[in-house]
Write a structure and sequence with these properties.
Order of helices and strands: HEEEEEEEEEE
Shape: rod-shaped
Number of helices: 1
Largest sheet: 8 strands, antiparallel
Distance between the termini: 65 Å
Length: 162
Amino acid sequence: MKKITTLLMILLLVSSCKLIDEKEDVDEKAKVTAAVKDSTMVNDKDENGCLASAGYVWSKVNKECVKGFSGIQLNPTDKPENEDETLSAYVLFNEDASQAEVFLPKDTTSIVLTREAEGKPWVLKDWQLVPWKGYVLKKGTVNMFAGDGEIGKKEIETDTEQ
């Protein structure tokens, strides 16, 4: 009888330890998942609330989060032969086309060019966006980027989750 009682006590002790370990594993996984979710929610948006990981940036001229690469694509006019990648600039216009916002490659901010009248270039300091066979972006007298003027669909960030 002592052997059976001892065996039952050992089985009870082992099974109760296993239940405690499983509960701790579940609690730990829940904490890790919650921490990852919280850090993703906090770090995924920029200072204007744009979802940066989805390609959204703040448009100064449109005052909203937009996908900058959905504007007019301007490709480099002089790409060095040793570069494998093509880094394009993108242009978005405000509603009346009096301002052009240029998103340059490898730059975290955009520049806003303004034009005085229709048919004139958009200008900011030594930058010019000239409407010629599409658009040409110049810095000083050097053509930096050019594109055919095809406008991509402007995507605007919404509050609805997809």
